[in-house]
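hey can u run this one w/ alpha-D-galactopyranose bound, need the structure tokens asap thx
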Amino acid sequence: MKRAALVSILGILMVSGLAATSGCKKAESPADPAAGAAKGAPSMDIVKSSFGILPDGTAVDLYTLKNANGVTAKLMTYGATLVSLELPDRDGAFADCVLGYPTLDGYVKNSPYFGSIVGRYGNRIAKGRFALDGKTYTLARNNGENHLHGGLKGFDKVVWEAQPFRETDGVSVKFSYLSKDGEEGYPGNLKVTVVYLLNNADELRINYEAVTDKPTPVNLTHHSYFNFTGGRRDILGHRLMLAADRYTPVDAGLIPTGELRAVTGTPMDFTKPEAIGSRLAQVKGGYDHNYVLSKSGAPLALAARVVEPESGRAMEIFTVEPGIQFYSGNFLDGTIAGKGGQVYGKHWGFCLETQHFPDSPNHPGFPGTVLRPGEIYSTRTVHKFSVEK
Ligand code: GLA
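ok here u go:
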């Protein structure tokens, strides 16, 4: 029997109604769930349990966040990963709408970044090399000759500290991680926090912050594979809109050439809603491209909207980031059996990763990604879920 299964019922801790202690700006004072119920207020909760133990003996915790509408998000400390996301369809039937594994084991052995936080630098850095303030840095090369998603042991493969909070209109978990100077080749000790908040407007908000003691590139993102059929079919029928009229074309190694190219009149154009599958065959290798968002910077701007026509499940993504990576699950090849034993074939999930552009450290013309001592890296993305009748 798997160790994860053995321990999964241990250590259950109800933090619903417990004091939100310190360290989170928006944290509210203790809520009394019983009093809330008496007033007819919606009930939200956070439950902490164990998700298993890593081969080195480190315990991995799971936080189950539930909002007043029954939307549930499960987050684990390994990779600050969204393990499951239960959303209603137009008949009110809930289904898990992100790909992943039933136990920790799968995530540790072979995960294509299912649901994780990606860093220190999301997406690719050409040849694992960049120059900063006159010095050249060499990073781990884990994707052919390139560096991908933070390297051999990126933020998706480390155990984060976690602290749950109960807030005015939602429940949240704050994940913290210290990425040491030299980790995967990056300069500087980088202190990172990522807060996931699930609120009663059915939004999953992700707020990222980081500080460093040496200049370093930083580009954090979230890597869920969404499938609003509840993971039952591929995602080709989902209709997608991207608020972007340009994208960054790539070379054979998926490194941007530096050009910002118009999408007009091409299969890359999602400025009006289109089924993901309708023109996919015309895109070599499938979609795996960074789109240049038409609006970026504060306040949050709409970046993407997706609707799954049969279930009616829909998602809007808002961000302050300048780009979004649209990945149509091209490398899923049927070798992974995920939750419920479901085999994940090609295009079984799609990712929409809000980000700065890939390989920015080698493209002075792209928006900058260098964080310097004394500055605060701060970014945010909102996933708003709804149902189309
Ligand atoms: C991102 C990349 C893809 C791939 C996936 C993970 O979306 O752009 O090329 O690496 O992550 O498999």
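The first strand starts at residue 13 and ends at 14. anyway lmk if its weird
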